[in-house]
Amino acid sequence: MVTCLWNVLGHIFPASARVEVVRQCARLLAPGGRIFIDVSHRHNARHYGLLPTAGRFLRGASHDVVVTWKPEGIGTAGHVFTAREFAELCRAAGVEIERRFVVDYDTGALRRWSFQGNLLYVCGAGFSLLGRDSPETSSSSVEAESAC
């Protein structure tokens, strides 16, 4: 099992390096192992508010954010993901999304709709990494991710 929690992936720059990080996580897995990755969801209206989230949705492009804590002046940069963007990243890394959960970080509650929280994924190594000849794909889970 590999865990990549609290949007660690969102702090990896440049964006192209994120694919390699996920690919390397998959290489660490034993057969049947899983990767647990959570990401800050760009369209999390419960956390960011309806109007800012609607603006992000309409702009459509990827989104990097800069946060500064005052008065210390300490800052960091991060990336907030969409479900579609994360599904594409996994596809490029040869990783299969097996399940997605929507988590409200304020309460820890699982939510039904993606706009109600951040995204927690359970992933497995793609068939190309395992060397299997005839993949038994579950592309419906990835297609479902892309639709959100």
Keyword list:
single chain, 148 residues, alpha+beta, 34% helix
Helix amount:
25-40%
Tell me the β content.
25-35%
End-to-end span in angstroms?
26 Å
Number of helices: 6
What structural class results from the helix and strand content?
alpha+beta
Main sheet specs:
5 strands, mixed
Low-pLDDT ranges: 128-148
Element order: H for helix, E for strand = EHEHHEEHEEEHH
Q: How many extended strands?
A: 7
Overall mean pLDDT:
84
Overall geometry comes to globular
Topology, element by element:
Elements: E1 2-4, H1 15-27, E2 35-39, H2 45-48, H3 50-59, E3 63-69, E4 74-80, H4 83-93, E5 95-103, E6 110-111, E7 118-125, H5 127-130, H6 139-147
Parallel strand pairs: 1-2
Antiparallel strand pairs: 2-7, 3-4, 5-6, 5-7
Quickly describe the structure.
By secondary structure, the protein is of the alpha+beta class. Helix content is 34%, strand content 28%. It has helices spanning 15-27, 45-48, 50-59, 83-93, 127-130, 139-147, and strands spanning 2-4, 35-39, 63-69, 74-80, 95-103, 110-111, 118-125.
Explain the overall architecture.
- The protein is α+β, with helices and mostly antiparallel strands.
- The chain contains 6 helices and 7 strands, in the order βαβααββαβββαα.
- It has helices spanning 15-27, 45-48, 50-59, 83-93, 127-130, 139-147, and strands at residues 2-4, 35-39, 63-69, 74-80, 95-103, 110-111, 118-125.
- The strands form 2 sheets. Strands 1-2-7-5-6 form a 5-stranded mixed beta sheet. Strands 3-4 form a two-stranded antiparallel ribbon.
- A hairpin with a 4-residue loop joins strand 3 and strand 4.
- Helix 1 crosses helix 4 and helix 4 runs antiparallel to helix 6.
- The two termini are 26 Å apart.
- Residues 128-148 have low confidence and may be disordered.
